[in-house]
TrEMBL record:
Residues 186-234 are annotated as: Disordered. Residues 186-205 have a biased composition (Basic and acidic residues). Residues 225-234 have a biased composition (Basic residues). InterPro entries: Pvc16_N (IPR025351). This is DUF4255 domain-containing protein. Residues 4-179 form the Pvc16 N-terminal domain. It holds the Pfam family Pvc16_N.
């Protein structure tokens, strides 16, 4: 799922003309060592925080179908995660970096979701909306200053981007579909005890065995008379 979000962001930024103008879009950690190796204008999209949105946990599940429409598995509900990115621009002059950041803001703030046409992998398979919040003020994630401190670099202008994406549930295979009708077979149960072969069981208390040897209903006699309440039995 994470790599699919990365690819969606790369494609979205690519549509704004970065790649055509010779600007690299990378997902590396912007450490001092990385910055020293950089040689071309670069937009760095660094993922630094992953948190589950527990308020969107669901129950139940869904069915997985094959190309013929048969159920081949059952999948637990997806779980949603907030992926927080730190987007920075790297160039030889601050003015060029600010121009790149402006281009980033123009591209990312133009939409609240990652367009479906840019999604691949599990995100395309699920077909769910992938939300995006750019430069929001209520993002529950470490501050940019803390991130730069952890990376060992100097504080730099950056844009915070939070993407809310689903992680596909666990799929369990089911039995293959029934393609043939129910076949019932019967076998003769034969008594091989000699001349008594095929004899049917009868009640010995019955005077009339009934047709074809079946036992008829028992003669239980007249039904007993009902006693009134309080009446003693003779």
């Amino acid at each position: 799922m994470i790599q699919d979000v990365d690819e969606g962001l790369r494609r979205l930024l690519g549509e704004s003309g970065f790649e055509a103008s010779g600007v690299d879009v990378v997902f590396d950690a912007p450490t001092k060592e990385w910055a020293a190796r950089r040689s071309v204008p670069t937009v760095c999209v660094f993922l630094y925080d992953i948190r589950e949105d527990v308020s969107r946990r669901g129950n139940g599940g869904g069915e997985v179908y094959d190309e013929d429409g048969h159920v081949v598995g059952r999948r637990t509900p997806p779980r949603w995660f907030d992926l927080t990115y730190l987007v920075t621009a790297w160039a030889s002059r601050p003015q060029d970096e600010h121009r790149l950041l402006t281009q980033v803001l123009t591209c990312l703030t133009a939409t609240d979701t990652l367009p479906a046409r840019l999604l691949g992998g599990s995100l395309a398979e699920l077909g769910l909306q992938v939300g995006m919040d750019t430069a929001g003020t209520a993002m529950d994630a470490p501050a940019a200053a803390d991130v730069w401190s952890a990376l060992g670099g100097e504080l730099k202008a950056s844009v915070g981007v939070r993407v809310r994406a689903p992680l596909a549930g666990i799929t369990q295979a089911v039995a293959p579909p029934v393609t043939e009708g129910l076949l019932v077979r019967s076998a003769d149960r034969r008594d091989t005890a000699g001349p008594e072969q095929g004899r049917r069981l009868r009640y010995t208390e019955v005077s009339d065995p009934g047709p074809e040897g079946f036992a008829g209903p028992r003669d239980r006699g007249p039904a007993p008379a009902r006693r009134r309440r309080g009446e003693r039995q003779p």
